[in-house]
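_Full entry_
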Amino acid sequence: MDRLFFLCGALSALVAVAAGAFGAHALKARLGPDLLTVFETAARYQMYHALALIAVAWAMSRWAAPQFRAAGWLFLAGTMLFSGSLYLLALTGIRGLGAVTPFGGLCFMAGWLLLAVGVWRA
């Protein structure tokens, strides 16, 4: 499982860098400043949590704690819900997609809490 989370983290970081470049170059002339900021936020949080997945993989290889596995899945779900909804909102302009974003944020927060609990208990 640690290799899976490491792989997902590395691939997610790749996508975050590509999305950041896409936003900075291809979307700059197509999106208004407000939607461009939304897109950049999605890429930034995707990168943060790609690195979090790599941290989960490292922690799993060092300590045995069931919380790490749950944290990894929460970081993946959070990336899909938070960053995914923001990418779609920025690209489509459908404001209703913003209703999904807080659920991704909750996944991120729960993931960080479980990562901390896992380290504490290990």
